[in-house]
Amino acid sequence: MHRRRAAGGIATLAVLTLATGACSSGRTSTQQVAASEIGDGAVRHALEPVVARLGLQIQRLSVEKTTGLHPEYELSVYLRPSKSISPDAYAAKIAPVAQAVIPTSFAKYDDIQWVDVCQEQAGTPDGVDYAAPVTRLEVNRRDAANVDWDHLELADVLKLYRSAPNEVSLQTSGGVDRTRAWRAAAAQARPPA
């Protein structure tokens, strides 16, 4: 599933499928929190306002601890639009979603080493364990530190994905990679000849 975890599996330490109205940990947004201390609703509370500005809602999220020689915490955030949108709209939202979720999560949660952000289809029922994402971007803390989050565009995401030795994962479905927005970004992301 994840190329960086070929030698190890994933064990769920804590899966926080957060329901609306769950209580917050009470920490301020500028204080870093250990992943093992994330309370029900804390992540949702921190991210809901920023994704709502993009016309998205949090479908579900989880914090998992990987197993192996160097266990790490990964935050997975699953978002969906309130109404059906086109593949072009999904492509256009990849960078703004990354901007909204990834730097905020790394700044707030010190133990999080990976953030995985998915956009799902509108109409995915609440509480569904798994729905195939339309877009999925996974970035580690090290690679995220080298990103200019204030000026991020889809072409920058594609460059990050294509740059070695980065361990960035980007997946799309539903024709997102055939849209006008994607093709323009891909042309801009191409290295000069």
Largest sheet: 6 strands, mixed
Structural class: alpha+beta
The residue fraction in helices comes out at: 25-40%
- Give the total of beta strands: 6
Discrete helix count: 5
Based on Cα principal axes, name the global outline: globular
Poorly predicted regions are: 1-32
> Percent of residues in beta strands?
15-25%
Give the rounded overall mean pLDDT: 78
- H/E order of the elements? EHEEHEEHHEH
First-residue to last-residue Cα separation: 33 Å
Across the major sheet, the strand order is 1-2-3-4-5-6
What's the alpha carbon Rg, rounded to whole Å?
Answer: 16 Å
Structural write-up:
The chain has one domain (3-189). Helices cover 29% and strands 22% of the residues. The protein has helices spanning 42-52, 87-108, 141-144, 154-162, 180-189; strands at 10-14, 56-66, 73-81, 112-119, 135-140, 169-172. It has a six-stranded mixed beta sheet with strand order 1-2-3-4-5-6. Helix 1 packs across helix 2 and helix 4 packs across helix 5. Mean pLDDT is 78; it is low at 1-32.
Give a brief rundown of this model:
This protein is an alpha+beta fold and about 190 residues long. About 30% of the residues lie in helices and about 20% in strands.
Task: Give the SSE layout.
Blueprint: E1 10-14, H1 42-52, E2 56-66, E3 73-81, H2 87-108, E4 112-119, E5 135-140, H3 141-144, H4 154-162, E6 169-172, H5 180-189
Parallel strand pairs: 3-4
Antiparallel strand pairs: 1-2, 2-3, 4-5, 5-6
Helix pairs in contact: 1-2, 4-5
